Hints:
Layout: H1 2-13, E1 27-30, E2 43-45, E3 51-53, E4 61-67, H2 72-87, E5 93-100, H3 104-113, E6 120-123, H4 127-130, E7 142-146, E8 152-157, H5 162-173
Parallel strand pairs: 4-5, 5-6
Antiparallel strand pairs: 1-8, 2-3, 4-7, 7-8
Amino acid sequence: MGWVALVIVAATAVGCGRDVPAALQVGTTTIAPADRGPMPPLSGNTLTGGSLDLASLRGKVVVLNSWASWCAPCKEEVPAFVTLAAASDPSSVAVVGLNVNDEAAAATDFATKHAMKYPSIVDPDGHLLATIPDVPPESLPSTVILDRQGRIAARIIGAAKPDELTGIVAAVAAETPGS
């Protein structure tokens, strides 16, 4: 009986020979322009007390990074987003944070300590993160890159690698309108 349970657990863990959906895998998924779906509406208050609606950024490549002050991989990857935001032309690329399941003071301290000059929308209960297609509801860190039409061009589940992140953003930014 013990061996049967072990075989069932092992088969389940490897997906019974089936491919594991991309949304459940840690790593990067890029999406061809013809296959891209829209990002659902996402807006909220920011750490600095303002408000931000991603729809207001249409026409720019948007890099939405979900993070929390208590998340170790988030601490490792934040320099890549700070560098990307500083190096990008703000008329064509917008970096936006999504602070998830965090305490306000801890999140503000984290953003200050890491010189995050880009806005972060506050998602105190993870509700906004859960609305992002094909991103597991509690995936921290995770990043979606939107094309100029507001469609999801790439997903990164887990910590973003700096060179990969900048390469994807550059490729999406180089796309011709209407792709």
